Amino acid sequence: MDAGLLAMACSGPFQDLESLLNGKPAVYTLGSSARQPPHLYAVTVGGESLLHLVAAVYGDSEDSTKKASLLYDKAPSLLFVQNSQGDTPLHYAARAGNMRMVALLIDLANGEGINNAKGLLETQNKIHETALHEAVRSGNNDMVKLFMEENPQLARFPEQGTSPLYLAVLLENKIIAKTLYDLSGGLLSYFGPDGRNALHVAVQGSQDLMKMLLEWNDNLTLQGDKNGSTPLHFAVIGTLRQICSQLLIASPDALYQHDHNGSFPTHVAASVGATRVIADFLMKSPNCADLRDARGRTFLHVAVDRMDIGTVDYACRNISLSWILNMQDKDGNTALHLAIRKGSLRMFCSLLGNRQVQLNLKNEKGKTPLDTARHAIPKGIYVKGENEVRILKALKYVGAKRGIVHQGFLDEYDIDQARQEEIHIMSQVKEGTQSLCIGSVLIATVTFGATFTMPGGLRDDDETNAGSPILAGTFHFYAFIVANTLAFTLSVMATISFIFSGDPMVHLRTRKVLFIRAIPLLLISVSSMVVAFALGTYMMLAPIAPVSALAIFLILILILVYYSWGMTISRIVLFTALCKRKGKWYGIVWAWPCAFLLVVLILSSLLLLAFKLAQVSHTGGKVEPPAQPPTPFA
User: Where would you find the membrane-spanning parts of this chain (predicted)?
Assistant: First the structure.
């Protein structure tokens, strides 16, 4: 298409376009093409005709409608031309929101007593959308009314693909959705892409639209998409409890409809951690608790597999669900088998604490939970405090049994496997040494520098004991020195251990022992450094701002709380589960108070050590209490 003709169709005056089409000179200079009528059927690279370009002009301009009428008079077939994407001029006009142009094109299509508008309105582009889709997308309800009044069956198109109603619901336009339904007499398409219907979208968006769709067609609740997922599956994914309840009221059978993977809504809820939704489902229909997916799993199996601790706790606390705790999937695994395999101490404790959970059930491989726990121990280097080790010890404590010993235990030791494990251990030691050794060296450097940069500074040369610390002789100073020295000593010991653990000349077994031994030394040295920093800060501020000094001291202690709290809680949770398993309910009463005391003991151990050594050095070993308060909290 000529560039000048293109410009005139888009933005030129009507009179110039008319003159050009009639072969007369125009104001716009077009060179030699101005002397001859242009080709009316010329198209752009995208296949747009002149009428496409005129129809796409934004706004209800009278000039653009006169151009469209002129082009139609010259070449009526342009009204039905589709571009490379399958769009007609009516698609373009609706997309631009040009109401006057849309009305004109429909009138032109009707012709003189011939109803050609129906065919034009039902024309679909390559993505199976009519001009009505563009009207819905533009949000112009008046244009939607015009289309539907002209062809009430238009909301049924396309038969496969995104319907206008689905698009309106997707855009959460309730007014247009109601217009489509009312003017079609309720006979319209609800479908969208990938087999979904409008209700699949509504449950994730507007609750009002969902209610309206259920009033129009409650059979939508049982329709699945290409994966078999119903609107209830979609609502569960969004953990929308109220919407799930309304869907079940409309169609209780939706709770028993699975997708192509065999997953029921309860399984989907467990996979996304929607514990409250599961509780609502079970209250509505308790028998849905034992529904199995394609792998034979209940919702409890799925919850364990997805590490949903809340759902596992709920199932173990609910007495009415005790009958599903020992159900086995197609591989024979119970929820306890899976929890052990995941290495989750919290889930394991929830199941272990329920006395209805059987400890010696075998899976298809003949493994009991104890066998699973043995195989779950990580290969290579591990510390005794890891969850897998605690789980194994707990199962042994409550008397769990092993499965049948098969011939595989008597086979010769696989040399290749042993070599692979050795390489893995060497890699662990190498990587761990490189990172942890840097930390231990930094602690040693900081504490070494703190020894010669004392809090409060040093005495001047003209004073007695020149060069000695100004705060020397006070109780808190000695406590600071003890804590700082302890941090320096332990960090140096950890550094030495890390150095030899990273030495390839040392035997691998020795390197492993040194590496494991250095970790607690490093942790204690960090704690001692925190105590030293807290004491140094307190000494500096206590004389002038005692309240601020105490506040800073307590804030720094939070570092130790952060370190010890998680470790203490995990131990107390395991202790509580063991008490429940053994029926020793009195132990549970004392569990949390003991946990609190244990945390206090951990926090105060380094402080007590520092203060005790400071007392000995300050008083020369005398039993009398120091003149200064023994703790910074005085």
Answer: 436-455, 475-502, 514-538, 544-565, 585-611
Identity of the amino acid at 123: T
Question: Tokens 């933005």 identify what position?
Answer: 11
Q: What's the pTM value of the predicted model, to 2 decimals? A: 0.74
pLDDT digits (tens, 9 = 90+) for 413-454: 455 555 666 666 677 777 778 778 888 899 899 888 887 777
Once rounded to an integer, what is the mean pLDDT over residues 185-191?
A: 94
The two tokens of residue 487 are 């941090």
- Kindly tell me the number of DSSP H helices and DSSP E strands found in the chain: 29, 0
Hey, CA dihedral for 17, 23, 28, 32, is it positive or negative?
Answer: positive
The dihedral formed by the CA atoms of 375, 378, 379 and 383, expressed in degrees to the nearest 10 = -130
How far is it, in rounded angstroms, from Cα 134 to Cα 466? 90
Domains observed in the chain: 1-126 (1.25.40.20), 435-619 (no CATH)
Q: How far is CA 349 from CA 318, 326, 355, 581, in A?
A: 15, 15, 11, 10
411 confidence band (pLDDT: 50, 70, 90): very low
Distance between CA atoms of 553 and 556, rounded to whole angstroms? 5
pLDDT digits (tens, 9 = 90+) for 549-559: 777 767 766 76
- What tokens appear for 452 in the block? 């010669």
Residues in CB range of 457: below 8 A, 6 or more apart: 469, 470
- pLDDT for 590 beyond 60: no
CA 72 to chain centre: 56
Tokens 């231990």, residue?
A: 440
Contacts of 496 (CB under 8 A, 6+ apart): none
* Cα 536 to Cα 530: distance, rounded to the nearest angstrom: 10
Burial of 566 (0-12, 13-18, 19+ CB in 10 A): exposed
pLDDT of residue 482: 83
Do 539 and 471 meet the contact criterion of CB atoms below 8 Å apart?
yes
Compute the distance between CA of residue 459 and CA of residue 137 in angstroms, rounded to an integer: 81
Per DSSP, helices labelled H in 58-140 are 62-74, 89-95, 99-110, 117-121, 131-138
Rounded to whole angstroms, the Cα distance separating 464 from 459 reads 8
Burial 430-439 (b: 16+ CB within 10 A, else e): eebbeebbeb
Q: What is the dihedral of CA 525, 530, 535, 541, to 10 degrees?
A: 160
The answer to whether the CB of 17 falls within 8 A of the CB of 70 is yes
